[in-house]
Amino acid sequence: MARGDGKLTHDLIPGEKGPQDACGVFGVWAPGEDVAKLTYFGLYALQHRGQESAGIATSDGHSILVYKDMGLVSQVFDESALSSMKGHLAIGHTRYSTTGGSTWENAQPTLGGSDQGTVALAHNGNLINTVELRDMVDESHVGREIRGELARGNTSDTALVTTLLAADPDRSLEDAAMELLPKLRGAFCFVFMNERTLYAARDPYGVRPLALGRLERGWVVASETAALQTIGASVIREVEPGELIAIDENGLRSHKFADPTPKGCVFEYVYLARPDAVIRGRVVHEARVEMGRELAREHPVEADLVIGVPESGVPAATGYAQESGIPFGQGFVKNAYVGRTFIQPSQTLRQLGIRLKLNPLEHTIRGKRVVVIDDSIVRGNTQRAQVRMLREAGALEVHVRISSPPVRWPCFYGIDFATRAELIANGLGVEEIRASIGADSLGYISEEGMIAATDQPASQLCSACFTGEYPITLPEDGLIGKHVLETLPIEVRTGHDQSIDYTVDADGVGLGVATGGEGALLRP
């Protein structure tokens, strides 16, 4: 069901990539329920976390069936597909690629098999020791052919984990997980299953969210609490950092595979999570409103109207208006039906400034001094287009306020911002960025103000994309990046092949790292 090599996009500017979401994972164990449809609607609620591909695996206790394809959840599945997926447990995934390109071969859930049965796995996050894991796969298959997803061209860290979980035919999946999980480095929230049991695991840092819920006849795990509530499950608690959960006919079992060292991603509060999600007791919408209030305190301005860039900028705009006393209004109209499209605009349409996603509401903006609130600036192209649209719609002044600090560093834990060289704040100061995007003024929230709005201790949050302080040590050999498994030849282990340019990915795009972890990050 692959659709060629067409690229997916729903950007304001074709070809302009903003901060790309992590992934969404969902799992359910519920005898007597239609688990495929429960998973479908759970993934529907997590669509914002990944729009490249979607997949569901179900089991009836005897065999596992996987259905996955490129596209949105609503594009991949229909009634006939879901009705064919019988069973009492299921897992699902919505993907944005962070390791391995956006291809059908890399869609999840991934499959692996052994004499113990089949393993299906879905992953939210990004591992940073993928080359080490590939070496482990090679070592575990000495004298045996590597089969399954890896043999079919899967280049994701998820396929490596799936293969390793199924590598020992004499070990149960639960035992294999308890041995493997402590060896993984990076951010991971896994939901996985064999024919009989549902599992969920979260890395010791708890970088990405993962919640546990209860149905009348079963259990559910999901990346965000909103997905649990969508299908009528009650929220029980978060899966703890360093915890492995197993759910079967004997109930729920919890294992601790590592000591927790919480470092939750602060960008979940800024942008990634749905506003109705609750992370570590804090409602995301309330955090974003408070970020807007703090922006108004830190960067006041005389203006007539406050508007937010849909969707994540709107709560912060509400808070800015409340604190400043400047009226809040709708300045942009968002096309609610713009999903991902395989159709690329022609050069003529590009030159005309095709606006797939946002259009200004001219009668609201004309003659006004406008404060526009957005969640982040990555390259600056999107904000430049927004400012231009507002001026064309008649705004007298455009003052840009950003509810996160300047993004200066790439994320290796499940968000795909851009390479460091592409981050506008890496090379320019605030005044230079203001001039670049054409705004009358520009203000970013302080790191302290942003963190205070989350109601979390700063010591328990990861803000590496703003500070460059990575809580999970990056590999010293510099073998890291979205396309690392596609770039490296199969012979490469942990040494360097002088014929390989490790600073670029398979497409020739700079990875932001080179020969030597932190030192490389100091260079564009």
From TrEMBL:
The keyword 4Fe-4S applies. Catalyzes the formation of phosphoribosylamine from phosphoribosylpyrophosphate (PRPP) and glutamine. It catalyses: 5-phospho-beta-D-ribosylamine + L-glutamate + diphosphate = 5-phospho-alpha-D-ribose 1-diphosphate + L-glutamine + H2O. Mg(2+) binds at S312, D374, D375. Pfam families: GATase_7, Pribosyltran. GO terms for biological process: 'de novo' IMP biosynthetic process; purine nucleobase biosynthetic process. The active site is at C23 (nucleophile). Keywords: 4Fe-4S, Glutamine amidotransferase, Glycosyltransferase, Iron, Iron-sulfur, Magnesium, Metal-binding, Purine biosynthesis, Transferase. Transmembrane segments: none annotated. It comes from Branchiibius hedensis. This is Amidophosphoribosyltransferase. HAMAP family: PurF. Its EC number is 2.4.2.14. The gene is purF. Binds 1 Mg(2+) ion per subunit. Binds 1 [4Fe-4S] cluster per subunit. It is an enzyme of class 2 (transferase). GO terms for molecular function: 4 iron, 4 sulfur cluster binding; amidophosphoribosyltransferase activity; magnesium ion binding. Its cofactor is Mg(2+); [4Fe-4S] cluster. Residues 23-250 form the Glutamine amidotransferase type-2 domain. In the C-terminal section; belongs to the purine/pyrimidine phosphoribosyltransferase family. [4Fe-4S] cluster binds at C265, C411, C462, C465. Pathway: Purine metabolism; IMP biosynthesis via de novo pathway; N(1)-(5-phospho-D-ribosyl)glycinamide from 5-phospho-alpha-D-ribose 1-diphosphate: step 1/2.
